[in-house]
Amino acid sequence: MSTLQEKIHALAPQAIAGMRRGIEKEGLRVLPDGSLALTPHPLALGSALTHPHITTDYSESQLELVTSARVGVGACVDELTEIHQYVARTLHAQGELLWNASMPCTLPTDETIPLARFGASNVGRAKSVYRMGLGHRYGRRMQMISGVHYNWSLPGVDSAGYFALIRNFRRHAFVLLYLFGASPALCPCFVQGRVHNLQPLGPNALYLPHATSLRMGRLGYQSEAQASLAVSYNSLEGYAASLYEALTRPYPPYEAVGIRNPGGDYNQLATSLLQIENEFYSTIRPKRTTRSGERPLHALRERGVEYVEVRLMDIDPFEPVGISAATMRVLDVFLLHCLLSDSPPDTPEEITELQRNQQLAAERGREPGLCLQRQGRSVPLVAWAQEVLDACVPLAAALDAAQGGSDYSDALQQALARVHEPEQTPSARVLARMAQAHGNSYADFALHQSMAARDALLALPWSDAQQARYRAMAQASLAEQKAIEAADTLPFEAWRQRYVALDALDAPGDAHAATPGPGL
């Protein structure tokens, strides 16, 4: 087996030059008092169904801003910033702003949170019904958690290589939770009526003293149903089989909810353990761009993994766009390390161990002396994190040598310093700022950071040409949505049955009859 150093030297310069990353950043629209904006998706932002860069996630109130896949970190940050500028200006004009934190703002009752709407087409209706199902299964409040997804690829990597990367990522994900977790506290309204282990921090916040990311802990994207899934990442075939089983396994509590209620309205797309592939919660996913009429699982089986989607990054409330260039460079180095390091197969025992490590890192990551489990042995989190990041040093040097400058090495050194200075982590800084300036109120802290982000974005240069380009994109997306709606020929129920049919997981189907267009 080649050493890591040998693998670094074997990397072709064109591979490093072709490294791509893209961002999907979620955020809630809020009013100036920090409460959730209940207005429809702004028309000036275009169609949530078809706009290439501005859509919604779970709710009408939850925007998702999407960059292209970029070969440079600087280009990715620039595009993310420009999209944010347009959104900030649009929202400011109607008296709203974007919530710059992962845990939600002050939320109304669960049933009052508005589901995202995507128009009258079959695919638009299906996207809304899917979200209705998520609400029935997990509650609408949980869906209002927001984050930053990091899409990453490297030329020449095959499916086996990406799955090796994923196994190592899952082993070392605690490092990212420790370094970049930024949700140690939340608004008490989020857990109203739920059993939890949070402690009061003044009258307007709940927290855990050493938490890094409550979003990634037991209060975040967790469910009893999905806890029964033991998905292996040893091969594309094994992963696809696990996902297929979850998509086809009847689940009695969801069967009790039913597809439709007595009034005929839809409750969910399917009664299986997962409605569709995207419902599977994970810290990282293998991805493949789908073709018209094609299910994601079929795309993966047919053409293999195209890129990975990192899903555990919190919004950084100290950054106007929720993530910094330095953080992105650490992610690049970290993912390259996961790809090039030896990656033995996972086992059921290790999968259980990693789930426990994730909970510990999320809920107690800054606790002095905290230990995790590695192959049945107790290892201090700080020592293990130091070991992982030390191994990344030559990779950062290789990226700097290929691209010029010292940006990667500088970002990694900042991360290494943070390992032994937990007070410098975003999660510790959030708690410190809450105590110093906001009377330990989470809502006041997050609203202040959101206003600061808005003001910073509004202060940046913005040209008439930029405004015209984004207006044109919005108009084009609205026209595209109308064209999709006009092209529908099937009744929705027939379309739904065809989309969730078992053969759709194995074959693309009739593109004219069942074209889903944009993904659900």
From TrEMBL:
GO biological process: glutathione biosynthetic process
Any GO CC annotation of this UniProt entry: cytosol
Alphabetized InterPro entries for the sequence: Gln_synth/guanido_kin_cat_dom, Glu_cys_ligase, Glut_cys_ligase
Swiss-Prot/TrEMBL catalytic activity: L-cysteine + L-glutamate + ATP = gamma-L-glutamyl-L-cysteine + ADP + phosphate + H(+)
Enzymatic class: ligase
EC number: 6.3.2.2
Organism taxonomic ancestry: Bacteria, Pseudomonadati, Pseudomonadota, Betaproteobacteria, Burkholderiales
Keyword Glycoprotein set for record: no
Name of this chain's protein: Glutamate--cysteine ligase
